[in-house]
Amino acid sequence: MKLQVGRNELLSALSAVIGVVERRQTLPVLSNFLLDLRDDELVVTGTDLEIELEARARVQNLAPGRATVPARKLFDICRGLPEGAEISLEVGGDKALLKSGRSRYSLSCLKADEFPALGRVTDGRELSMAQAQLRSLIERTQFAMAQQDVRYYLNGTLLEVDAGRVRAVATDGHRLALSEATLETGISERIQVIVPRKAILELQRLLDSTDEPAKVRISATQIEVDLDVVRLTTKLIDGRFPDYERVVPESGDKKLQADREMVKRALARTAILSNEKFRGVRLTIDGSKLSLQTHNPEHEEAEEDLEVGYEGGPIEIGFNVNYLLDALGALNSEQFVMELKNADSSGLIHALDDESSKYVVMPMRL
Amino acid sequence: MIRVLPDTLVNQIAAGEVVERPAAVVKELVENSLDAGARAVEVEIEQGGAGLIRIRDDGKGIAADELSLALTRHATSKIGSFDDLERVATLGFRGEALPSILSVSRLKLVSRTADAEHAWELGGAGHIDGAVPRPAAHPFGTMIEVRDLFFNTPARRKFLKTEATEFRQIQQAVSRIALSRFDVGFALRHNGRRVFDLVPAAGDEGRLSRIREICGDEFVTQSTAIDESRLGMRLHGWIGLPSFARPQADLQYIYVNGRLIRDRLLAFALKRAFADVMHSTHHPAYVVYLEVDPASVDVNVHPQKTEVRFREARQVHDLLFGAVHQLLRRLRPEPERHHQIQLAAEPMPDVVPGFVAPSGGASVSVWRQTARLDLREPSANRYAAPRTSESPGASLWQPPKPAPISESSAEIAATPAADARPLGTPLAQVHGIYILAQNDHGLVLIDAHAGHERVLYERLKQQLEEGGVPAQALLVPEVVTMAEDEADALEAQHEQLRRYGLEFDRSGPGSILVRAVPPLLGRDAVATLLRELVGDEVRRDSDTHFGEALDAQHRVLADVACKSAIKAHRRLTIAEMDALLRDMERTDLAGQCNHGRPTWMQITLAELDRLFLRGR
Known about the structure:
The complex is a heterodimer.
Chain A: E1 2-6, H1 7-18, E2 32-38, E3 41-47, E4 51-58, E5 60-63, E6 65-70, H2 71-80, E7 86-92, E8 95-100, E9 103-108, E10 125-130, H3 131-139, E11 156-161, E12 165-171, E13 175-182, E14 191-196, H4 197-206, E15 213-218, E16 222-226, E17 230-235, H5 244-247, E18 254-259, H6 260-271, E19 280-286, E20 289-295, E21 301-307, E22 309-311, E23 315-320, H7 321-330, E24 335-340, E25 347-351, E26 354-361, E27 364-365
Antiparallel strand pairs in A: 1-5, 1-7, 2-3, 2-6, 3-4, 4-17, 7-8, 8-9, 10-15, 11-12, 11-14, 12-13, 13-26, 15-16, 16-17, 18-22, 18-24, 19-20, 19-23, 20-21, 24-25, 25-26
Helix pairs in contact in A: 1-2, 6-7
Chain B: H1 7-18, H2 22-35, E1 40-46, E2 52-57, H3 67-70, H4 82-86, H5 97-103, E3 106-112, E4 119-125, E5 134-136, E6 141-147, H6 154-158, H7 163-178, E7 185-190, E8 193-198, H8 203-215, H9 217-221, E9 223-230, E10 233-240, E11 252-256, E12 259-260, H10 264-274, E13 286-291, E14 297-298, E15 309-310, H11 313-330, H12 335-339, H13 361-389, H14 392-397, H15 403-414, E16 425-430, E17 434-439, E18 442-447, H16 448-467, E19 471-481, H17 484-492, H18 494-499, E20 503-508, E21 511-517, H19 523-535, H20 537-541, H21 548-564, H22 574-586, E22 600-604, H23 605-611
Parallel strand pairs in B: 1-7, 11-13
Antiparallel strand pairs in B: 1-2, 2-6, 3-4, 3-6, 4-5, 7-8, 9-10, 10-13, 11-12, 14-15, 16-17, 17-18, 18-22, 19-21, 20-21
Helix pairs in contact in B: 1-5, 2-7, 10-11, 13-15, 16-21, 16-22, 17-19
Keywords (chain B): DNA damage, DNA repair, Endonuclease, Hydrolase, Nuclease
Organism (chain B): Solimonas marina
Region (Disordered) (chain B): 378-406
């Protein structure tokens, strides 16, 4: 295998894939990239056995072949080479020789046949949506995913596909984020799959905000997202996601409407003096006044009064301030609405006149 | 065909429970001696008890016409009615031991009461059918000889361990009893060799020397006395300092009304008291005596009587946990005490005459208080001195000195007083890990991370208790399934657990619906906590919550403290080190970090002198 390629072209392919390669490995081949050279294309593959990322670079093919090379080392070398440098890479036996100008690197390779391939999704159903749409779904929900929870099915995002919409739902058991995009999917019956946390975060990194298509193929065990030059394949989490629709409350009798940025900033300020561990904030709403109160074990206190629009009787309710900040941060409207019922029931946050993204936050008894 | 079993067989079956090994025989017989009012008990063993067990006492003896009755099942002089059983104060009462032992050995019983002209003896192998007492020669008291134990139950005999192991068990059994009756002398011989000879212990010195003989010298120097009374119960004895952590739970003696008990509740309370200062793989050492109203404790739970059941389990737990926990918290860095902790040197008042009354923690703490007062006295005098020297007349022509200055100078003179800073003045940092300080006694080495960790941990715990525990509601209530009685137990603790941030409903006979959890605890921790709350029989029997919900959150705080404490290789200025040492002196349990590691060590001048061969 021998090829000639521009540094930038190669680097963009490598950096698309490097995220999936874990730094610590017990299986040596997993810290390598698989390089597959055919025609004038180099296909770079990285995997952690759950997720497989594949990126393509245009190269000058001098001798086709397959090889695996140490992923992070190759990536770091390319990154360190000057912009616009020409790279030649030649693999023979168990060594890969990389040359650029007056630099020479010899890397040790492992057999290409040892590289575990996840396999393509062939039998699945397919839909296509704009990258921007998929990205928005992920951005507006990913923060609510659980992390290393024993309820493994929460360590990911539920993707739900219906004929006329795609929904993303994430929850860690204390709050829930839901976002939906309206589009003709061409899929008649509902599909629900749970995409693992790491794949969601990788996707968010790979997707851009254009109308370029993202082709999504879903089978019973895998999902594949094809972005033309990059393709992500991941195993799905095999489990039952909680019945999220039961958790999203009917609209409450108390409705607060306020400037999102204003409330977010006030919350961020008061959060400074909340208990570092519990992050509790007390919301007191009476008439058009919203008061935020926090205090910490050092007996420091913060209090902010805000002018808001409010329908309903006075209420006092506690929340984890991070949950509120996350939800407000994920919205991008100017005004938001928070619906409440009582101090023991969940709060519902969404944009004014737009319920495509909704956030359910459970209260905290302070 | 159903038939009534012959007595011998019934006794052999009972023997299976009561006398499982030679040590159990020794225990039963020695207890009988004590119940007979013996002042001296001699135990002679051959071949680890398999050959011979001979117990001789100077108790009140058994009358000739009662000898054969003594060897009959359910015959006892100790109780006579159910009311007696309700308030058992003797060690034995079931009337099972002697017939059981007889049924599996060649037994000889010789006894002489005070009013008998001579002794009588009765014996048999396996049974005494038809045997009648014969006259014998023996001083006042009783002698029981048990030969060839398990001669007729070969299976059991085969299960005996080596001679050394069996004898160790016997020695332990006698030791346990000896620790409960300081007023009785005990002698133990094995194959003719003297093992120990414990004279009746009078006064604290005697008691301590017996403790030393049985528990070792180190325990005596590394322990502190305790004495607490509450709600008609009294706890006294000795508690090993946290630094005396043991890899095995081999030095734990709990006596309830003079009876050695191996009770989960009691051991649990003591373990909890030590939880914060001892690594979970280590065990505390203690010799403690609990005295409660005999009517409030049921000893007839277990054939060997090592388990008891308390009417007021919660109060007993609280007394043990509270007293020991408080004692540990009261410990302050006191270098001179760490090296002079000879309890024997302290003249202590005899609190309960005749019984094991190591006058306890109270006197130690009083002593400590007076020591502190003594230190302040000179400074107070110094402070007062200039004022008294100013006669009223003098003040007429001399403007009074500005008080603040004289006051502050007096205080400055007072601060270096020896024990105001037991951890000393910091000198330097060693390799970025240890603080080297000097106090009156010599050098002090402090592990800065461990010390800081403890300071933070205690602060966090205090904050949690002051601020109350919030409850974070769950989006989807979580169903936890468990046995019905477990769910009952949990439900009974509902209100107490709510205070610690755990909210749940009963959703079925065997299921609990968790609605809110303390924000400090992760999912796993909550699940573990629930299991802990119901998983233990002790807890299921009583509707009480012993603070596990708080303990679980403390474990998280311990982790937080560990992560936020200064790390190794952090350069500290003298002022920072000084602040840390003073913080440690003010902090409870500062002698150990959260994981039970020591935080500081004292190296005395004498030790340094020895090292450099000075003054020899």
